[in-house]
Write a structure and sequence with these properties.
- The complex is a heterodimer of chains A (about 140) and B (about 475).
- Chain A has a single domain, classed as 3-Layer(aba) Sandwich (Rossmann fold), CATH 3.40.50.620.
- In chain A, about 50% of the residues lie in helices and about 25% in strands.
- Chain A is built from six helices and five strands, in the order βαβααβαβααβ.
- Chain A has a five-stranded parallel sheet, sandwiched between helices.
- In chain A, helix 1 packs across helix 3.
- The radius of gyration of chain A is 15 Å and the shape is globular.
- The two termini of chain A are about 25 Å apart.
- The model of chain A has no long low-confidence stretch (mean pLDDT about 85).
- The longest helix of chain B is centred in the middle third of the chain and has 33 residues.
- Chain B is elongated.
- Classes of the chains: A alpha/beta (about 140), B alpha/beta (about 475).
- Chains A and B meet through helix 2 of A and helix 6, helix 9 and helix 11 of B.
C-alpha cells in the first residue's frame, strides 16, 4: 500500500481540497506518512521579499499558509512532516517525490483553461507528466 | 577558513560555470543599454560590469549574487555626466566606493531595517518608470521601422523563452536583429551613433580632473546618492538571494565589497554599479550558488567584449529599447496595485510619494529620503494617538489611559482631563499606557498638581516598571 504520500500545497483553496483527499487515503492505511511540501517559488521571491518587512515576517506568512493543512491532517492523527522547499514548483515537487521515494503525489489543480495554462503554466499538469509515481490531481 | 573557501567557491562547480555563462550573456545587452541611460560610451558600462563582477566574486558578502553596471546607478549619474563629463563620473565612482566602504566598516546596513517596505516598493516602481522614460526619446516619433524593431524585440524576449531557454533571449534578439538590420541595410539609429567604442582591456588611469574643493563639491552629492542607491539595491538583492537559496549572507561585508569594487572600477574607467536583482535571479535560477558563478560571468564577459567589440556599435537602438522595456516591466512591482488597495492608507501614500518625488526630481535617493521621513512622521502620528476614558465607580473618579505617553502625545493627554471637579478621589489607571520621556513625566505632574489645587486626592496606579522608575526619578508631585 501507499507508505509515503507527498502532498504539494500552496495555501490556496484547491490545495486544501487536495489535503482532504490525501487525508482520506492516508487514514485508510496504517502507518502511512504524509509529506507536506510547500514550494517557495523562485519567480515570486522578489515580490515576497519586497512586500515583507524582514525575513521573520515572510517565514511567518509561509508557515501561516500551511496551518489549515496541518490542522486537517492533525485532526485525523496521521503521521506527517512539513517541508518548505525553494525553487521552480513543478520540478522541485517531482525531485522531492523521488528523494522521499513517495508512493503517490497528491496536488490540487487551479482548473485553468487552455489559454491560462499556456500563459501561466500548470504545476499540476507538469507534475502529472513528469512524476515517477501515481499522481492524484484534485479539482 | 579553508572549509569556508571551499564551500563558497568549489561546492557547485559545474552548475556555477553554466550559470555564470548564462549571466555573462544576459549582462551584455543591459550593460550597453545602461551606459546609454547614463550618457556614456557603452564600453564604460561593459568595463564597469566586468570589473565589478570579478571583484565582487572575491570580496562580496553574498555568494551567487551578481553586481554590475545598473539602471538605478545610471539614472543617478546621468545629470553629472551631462554637465561635467566622463572624468567627473570616474571621480564620483571612486568616491562612491569610499563612502560605501565606510558604510560597510561602520555597519550602516543595520539601519536598512528603518526603511519601510512602502519606500522599497516605491523605489523599485520609480526605478522601473525612470528606465522606461529614458527609452522614450529613443523610439517615439523616429520612424515606423523603429517601432517595428521595438515590437519584434519585445516579441522575441517574451515568446522565445517559452520554447528555448539555453541562451538568454535578449542576446538572441540582439544578434538576430542586428544581422537583419545590417544585411537588409535598414535605416535605424545604432549604438555607434551615440558614442565610439574602443576595444581593449581596461587599464589603470587617474581621471583627469583638478583635485580641488570645487571638484569635491560637484561630485560629492552625486557620490552620496550613488552610494545610498547602490547599497539599497544591493542589500535588497542580497535578501532576495538569501531567500531563494535559504542561506544567510554578510550584509556588511557586501557593503564593503561594493565599495572596493566601485573604487577599483572608477580607476579602470568604469561607471559605478551595484547588485542587480534581475541578473542575480537569473543566476540562482540557472543553478548558480557560489562565488565561482560570479567570477565565470566576469571572465566570460571580458572575453565577449573583446570578441564582440565590433558588433556592439552596430546594434540598432530600437533593439536595446525593446530590451530595456522588458527590464522595466520586470522591475516594476505589479502587485503594487493590490497593495494600494489593501495596505494601510499611510503606507499607500508613502509609496506614491516616493514614486512621485523620484519621477519629479529624477533622483532615486531623494524619493527614498522623502519616503523615509514621511513614514516616520506617519508613524509618530499613529503612535501618539492616546485615549483617556473617564468613568465613575461608587467612590472614585477613574481615568483610564490607553496609549504611549511621550513628547508628541502629552498635549492630547492633558487636554483629555476634566479639571473642573473638586473634592474627589481620582484614580489614573496606566495599565494600558507607558511613560517614555521627561515631557511625559511633566504632563503627569501637571495633571496631578492641577487636581490637587482643587482638593482632589490623586492616585496613579498600574504603571509598568520602567514607567514607574521614570516617574520616581523625575516627577515633582510625589516629592512634596
Amino acid at each position: 500500500m501507499y507508505k509515503t504520500i507527498l502532498l504539494a500545497v500552496d495555501g490556496s483553496e484547491n490545495s486544501l481540497r487536495a489535503t482532504d483527499e490525501a487525508v482520506k487515503i492516508a487514514s485508510l492505511i496504517p502507518d502511512c506518512q504524509i509529506v507536506v511540501v510547500f514550494v517557495a517559488d523562485f519567480s515570486k521571491s522578489k515580490n515576497e521579499i519586497l512586500h515583507a518587512q524582514g525575513k521573520e515576517e515572510l517565514e511567518y506568512a509561509r508557515r501561516k499558509k500551511m496551518l489549515p493543512v496541518e490542522e486537517k491532517i492533525n485532526s485525523k492523527n496521521i503521521n506527517y512532516q512539513l517541508k518548505i522547499l525553494r525553487g521552480n514548483p513543478g520540478p522541485t515537487i517531482i525531485e522531492h517525490a523521488d528523494q522521499e521515494k513517495a508512493d503517490m503525489v497528491v496536488i490540487g489543480s487551479r482548473g485553468l483553461n487552455t489559454l491560462q495554462e499556456m500563459v501561466l503554466g500548470s504545476v499540476s499538469h507538469e507534475v502529472m507528466k513528469n512524476a515517477n509515481c501515481p499522481v492524484l490531481i484534485v479539482k | 577558513m579553508v572549509e569556508k573557501i571551499k564551500r563558497e567557491w568549489f561546492s557547485n562547480i559545474r552548475a556555477d560555470i553554466l550559470a555564470g555563462t548564462v549571466v555573462a550573456l544576459a549582462l551584455i545587452p543591459e550593460a550597453i543599454a545602461f551606459s546609454i541611460i547614463a550618457g556614456v560610451d557603452p564600453m564604460v558600462g561593459l568595463y564597469a560590469s566586468f570589473c565589478i563582477v570579478v571583484i565582487i566574486a572575491f570580496v562580496g558578502g553574498r555568494p551567487g549574487m551578481i553586481s554590475a553596471a545598473t539602471g538605478a546607478m545610471a539614472l543617478v549619474m546621468a545629470p553629472l555626466v551631462r554637465e561635467h563629463g566622463l572624468d567627473y563620473l570616474l571621480v564620483a565612482t571612486v568616491l562612491t566606493g569610499i563612502i560605501q566602504l565606510l558604510f560597510g566598516i561602520f555597519k550602516v546596513s543595520r539601519f536598512m531595517k528603518f526603511i519601510p517596505r512602502a519606500v522599497m516598493i516605491g523605489f523599485v516602481n520609480a526605478l522601473a518608470i525612470l528606465i522606461f522614460m529614458a527609452q522614450v526619446p529613443h523610439f517615439i516619433g523616429i520612424s515606423n521601422m523603429t517601432y517595428l524593431f521595438v515590437a519584434i524585440t519585445l516579441a522575441i524576449v517574451y515568446i522565445l523563452p517559452r520554447f528555448f531557454k539555453a541562451i538568454p533571449a535578449p542576446l538572441i534578439a540582439i544578434v538576430v536583429l542586428t544581422s537583419v538590420a545590417l544585411y537588409a541595410n535598414i535605416d535605424l539609429r545604432s549604438v555607434g551613433d551615440l558614442g565610439a567604442i574602443t576595444r581593449s582591456l581596461p587599464e589603470f588611469f587617474i581621471p583627469n580632473v583638478p583635485l580641488t574643493f570645487e571638484t569635491l563639491a560637484i561630485v560629492f552629492p552625486f557620490s552620496l546618492a550613488l552610494a545610498i542607491v547602490g547599497l539599497l539595491e544591493s542589500l535588497l538583492t542580497a535578501s532576495i538571494v538569501d531567500d531563494m537559496t535559504d542561506t544567510e549572507s554578510d550584509k556588511n561585508r557586501e557593503a564593503r565589497g561594493q565599495g572596493i569594487a566601485n573604487i577599483v572600477t572608477g580607476f579602470f574607467g568604469g561607471m559605478a554599479g551595484c547588485a542587480m536583482i534581475g541578473q542575480s535571479v537569473i543566476n540562482v535560477k540557472s543553478g548558480g550558488r557560489g562565488r565561482l558563478s560570479t567570477l565565470t560571468a566576469g571572465a566570460l564577459l571580458m572575453f565577449l567584449i573583446i570578441v564582440l567589440g565590433n558588433l556592439v556599435v552596430q546594434i540598432p537602438m530600437p533593439v536595446l529599447v525593446g530590451i530595456m522595456i522588458m527590464v522595466s516591466i520586470g522591475t516594476f512591482d505589479w502587485s503594487s496595485f493590490t497593495y494600494l488597495r489593501k495596505a494601510p492608507k499611510a503606507d499607500a501614500i508613502v509609496m506614491l510619494v516616493t514614486v512621485g518625488i523620484v519621477v519629479a526630481t529624477n533622483d532615486l535617493s531623494k524619493g527614498v529620503f522623502a519616503g523615509v521621513i514621511l513614514s516616520a512622521i506617519f508613524f509618530v502620528a499613529k503612535i501618539s494617538k492616546l485615549k483617556v476614558k473617564e468613568h465613575h465607580d461608587n467612590k472614585h473618579l477613574i481615568f483610564k489611559v490607553d496609549g504611549q505617553l511621550f513628547f508628541a502625545s502629552t498635549e492630547d493627554f492633558i487636554a483629555s482631563f476634566d479639571f473642573s471637579v473638586e473634592n474627589e478621589d481620582i484614580i489614573i489607571d496606566f495599565s494600558n499606557a507607558r511613560i517614555w520621556d521627561d515631557s511625559a513625566v511633566g504632563a503627569v505632574d501637571k495633571v496631578v498638581m492641577k487636581y490637587r489645587e482643587k482638593n482632589n486626592r490623586v492616585t496613579i496606579k498600574d504603571l509598568d516598571t520602567s514607567s514607574q522608575k521614570l516617574l520616581n526619578e523625575l516627577a515633582v508631585y510625589n516629592k512634596g
